[in-house]
Amino acid sequence: MSKLSIRFYKDHEVRAVWDEEYSKWWFSVLDIIGAINDQNDYKKNRNYWKYLKTKLRNQNSEVVSITNQLKLNAPDGKLRLTDVVDQTGVSLLAQSITNSKANDFLDWFTFSDNSIDGRSKKKASWAY
């Protein structure tokens, strides 16, 4: 059974799923986009990703080729396939978002042991 970890970046959930087979975490693309853009609207995040993915695909970006799909709980409570990236993909995705907040997110993600805020540590949870 896979483990779900919810991390918090400035009160935005960033869901991660542990992959036993490959021994690595996969992170929700829509959550990353929402956190970077400070956007809680699922549809707006999905539309942003749809636009960005098309743009990156046309540029032959590695981000699109390393994206996988896993089932995560959707806003309606159902398990739905969603795009996920590994740690390398998170960095590439953040770098492809033209937003000044992307660097802050990347610093938080990369150095989370040092820069994760206290509220995040309190809110972080595991579900099995």
Q: Alpha-carbon distance between the termini?
A: 7 Å
Unreliable stretches (pLDDT < 50, length at least 5) are 114-128
Helix content: 40-55%
Please write the string of helix (H) and strand (E) elements: EEEHHHEEHHHHE
Shape: globular
The average pLDDT value, as a whole number, equals 84
Structural class label: alpha+beta
Give the strand line-up of the largest sheet: 4-5-3-2-1-6
Rg calculated over all Cα atoms: 14 Å
Figure out the total of helices.
7
For the report, how would you describe the main beta sheet? Answer: 6 strands, antiparallel
Share of residues in strands:
25-35%
Task: List how many beta strands DSSP finds.
Answer: 6
Give a description of the structure.
The chain has helices at residues 29-36, 42-58, 62-65, 87-96, 101-110, 112-115, 118-123; strands spanning 4-9, 12-19, 24-28, 68-73, 79-85, 125-127. Strand 2 and strand 3 (24-28) form a beta hairpin. With 128 residues, it is α+β, with helices and mostly antiparallel strands. Residues 114-128 have low confidence and may be disordered. The protein is 46% helix and 27% strand. Helix 1 (29-36) crosses helix 2 and helix 4 (87-96) packs antiparallel against helix 5. The protein has a six-stranded antiparallel beta sheet.
Secondary structure elements and their pairing?
Elements: E1 4-9, E2 12-19, E3 24-28, H1 29-36, H2 42-58, H3 62-65, E4 68-73, E5 79-85, H4 87-96, H5 101-110, H6 112-115, H7 118-123, E6 125-127
Antiparallel strand pairs: 1-2, 1-6, 2-3, 3-5, 4-5
Helix pairs in contact: 1-2, 4-5
